[in-house]
Amino acid sequence: MPELPEVEITKRSLSKQILRKKVSSVTIINPELRYNINKEKLTLLKGKIIKKIIRRSKYILIFFNDTNVLLIHLGMTGRFYYTKTNGRKFNTSFYNNTNIINKHDHLKIKFGKFSLIYNDVRKFGFIKRIQKKNVVTSNHLSRLGCEPLSNKFCFNYLKSKILNKKSSIKNLLMNQSIVAGLGNIYVNETLYFCKIHPEKKGYKIVDKDIRKLISVIKKILKNAIIAGGSTIKNYHNSEGKKGSYQKNFHVYDREGKKCLRISCKGKIRRIKRSGRSIFYCSKCQT
Ligand SMILES: [Zn+2]
Fold this sequence. Notes:
The chain has 286 residues and is α+β, with helices and mostly antiparallel strands. It has six helices and ten strands. The chain has helices at residues 4-18, 39-43, 155-162, 169-174, 184-193, 207-227, and strands at 25-28, 50-56, 59-64, 68-73, 78-84, 105-111, 114-120, 126-131, 268-273, 276-281. The strands form three sheets. It has a four-stranded antiparallel sheet. A four-stranded antiparallel sheet has the order 2-3-4-8, covered by helices on one side. A two-stranded antiparallel ribbon has the order 9-10. Helix 1 packs across helix 6 and helix 5 packs across helix 6. It is elongated. The two termini are 28 Å apart. Bound molecules: zinc ion (ZN).
């Protein structure tokens, strides 16, 4: 599932390819997604120019030169790729063609000589046209907490959110109204680096560890963005290039393997909580 770094990379790739470009046509190939694509609303984008592309949590927002905004969520397997009018794909050297199955294409937005295509195998993603004035109050975005890479995500902020909380630190960090966009993989990795047991209760986390959590979260996300995102199952960035962060995982998906800390003799354990896996070292995370 694309997490924050993958969405950020997708956003950057989109910015590189479609910013300031004019939409020449919109084709709905298959409207079936988490929310069906509204053909009438989307075809109105014809002739509009893309002004700005931003990421908020795991959402991508594309602003046009009027009041239109496209709100996009990649769900589990959503991704973008580009094709030229003659059918040839962009950046073919990066493409892993076997991973693009055209029957999972949903939307095609044409910009002159090339098209942007949204492909989603499991159909949990969505693309909605909304109005600029409704962005902040949108029910997808209105309750989101701090962006972990922003300056607002600091010691005082996190402390205020976990103080007196009896929930586990894992659940608190996964709570989107506290930290926006942080998912299971990066939370597991963060807690390992901070040597904190995932089920430790929020109010028991000492100040020193809160500081560490902040700096580790920022570092992990930045490194993952630089590395091209994780390659968890279906993820490729919109240029079809596979991310390379996966080989750097320390606990995620390493059940039964040795802890990577030289001084630690522990093994990585996996427990299930409300349908999600928790990976942690049985020795050094306390
Ligand atoms: Zn360990």
